[in-house]
Design goal:
It is built from 16 helices and twelve strands. By secondary structure, it is an alpha/beta fold. The longest helix is centred in the N-terminal third of the chain and has 19 residues.
Length: 376
């Protein structure tokens, strides 16, 4: 890890002149989740401007992909990030950020982690150190994983406890306000449903089943799904995790032509057109159940996934009625049309305290109050 230490040392040396610059009345939004501001960022930015239309806001969103061009462009982007971090009063992030974690910042800089999920099913961040390989563990520690957070936005006290472990923060650093995505679900209707079906040529007379698994970071084989799916009665829409989007294995299967593959679409829009949502360890389940979609968990690799990543929420114990190892049995359950909606909602609200349509408003008000405290 000597090279990493040299890299960090040089980057901090380069960062020193940036810190001599005077901070502006500015909020910086950083993300590696997408190449454009996420739905949650847009909601929060709109609310901040509503409460203070003179506020200066900068967004730098660049997805880190596993190819040479992406790595190079993200490296040179570091210098632009350093400038705006040094000249901002507050920085908002929604995942791990290299410059935030490895650089030594001004003492008065506020960093708010607005993690891109609500209830956290699988372990994340520092929780995963004990299941990583020795090399991965050393690399994570060398890269100061999840350091320098001032506050972390959470959807509930229980989720906040997960963040305390995952990010190494204290209870008083948890902002139990709820997330902008919760507001979007709370206020929205299904006005996009017809538009989405038309956009992706989905039959209007069939029920729509959306499959949205978490990432596997390896080739994704959906043979068992194709073998047991009833294409005569249902449409199959598949939206993989962004990391897995280009890693489908059996695309030459004739039945695969019947599957609608969706990319570069916000998960909320995809869920909006669903009658049923099938996921696994993805926190998309909370969004789907809140959106009144009949949601099931296809857990064909439950034991393997637990060993590899670990769980905060043990689905088979908490909501066994919705968990299936076999896709055949899952399809049979869907056809029964007897969904335990009350139990599903009870499960979700264990991990969501604030579902009132005012989460974004609370976050924005808190940020602006902190701006005042800095004599902006």
């Amino acid at each position: 890890m000597f090279i990493i230490q040299i890299f960090k040392f040089l980057l901090n040396i380069i960062y020193i002149p940036f810190k001599w610059l005077r901070p502006d009345a500015k909020i910086l939004f950083l993300s590696r989740q997408a190449n454009r501001p996420t739905l949650e960022y847009n909601l929060l930015i709109s609310e901040l401007k509503r409460q203070n239309n003179e506020l200066k806001i900068v967004t730098i969103t660049k997805k880190l992909e596993k190819n040479f061009i992406s790595v190079c462009s993200n490296f040179f982007l570091l210098f632009r990030q350093m400038y705006h971090i040094a000249t901002s009063k507050i920085v908002v992030i929604d995942g791990y950020s290299i410059p935030i974690s490895i650089l030594k910042h001004r003492k008065d800089l506020i960093v708010i982690q607005m993690w891109h999920a609500n209830g956290i099913i699988k372990k994340i961040g520092l929780q995963t150190l004990n299941v990583r390989t020795p090399f991965q563990r050393k690399l994570a520690i060398a890269m100061n994983m999840h350091k320098n957070y001032s506050y972390v936005v959470a959807s509930s006290r229980r989720t906040g406890q997960v963040f305390e472990e995952a990010f190494g923060v204290e209870e008083e650093q948890i902002l139990n306000f709820g997330t902008p995505k919760l507001d979007y679900i709370y206020h929205r209707d299904n006005y996009l449903k017809k538009d989405m079906k038309k956009k992706y040529s989905i039959a209007s007379h069939k029920k729509v089943i959306v499959y949205m698994p978490t990432y596997r970071n390896k080739g994704f084989d959906c043979t068992k799904i194709l073998n047991n799916f009833d294409f005569d009665k249902y449409e199959l829409v598949m939206k993989l995790h962004p990391v897995d989007e280009n890693m489908l294995i059996n695309t030459h299967d004739e039945r695969f032509k019947k599957v609608k593959i969706i990319k570069n679409e916000d998960s909320s829009n995809v869920i909006g057109m669903a009658d049923y949502v099938i996921t696994d360890y993805s926190n998309i389940a909370f969004e789907a159940i809140l959106s009144d979609k009949k949601t099931y968990f296809y857990l064909y690799d439950y034991d393997e996934y637990e060993k590899k990543f670990g769980f905060n929420i043990y689905l088979k114990k908490e909501i066994p009625e919705l968990c299936f190892n076999s896709f055949d049995k899952l399809m049979q359950e869907i056809k029964k049309n007897k969904y335990p909606n009350t139990k599903a909602k009870k499960f979700v609200f264990q991990y969501i305290d604030n579902y009132d349509g005012h989460c974004t408003e609370r976050i924005a008000a808190y940020i602006l109050e902190k701006m005042k405290d800095r004599d902006v």
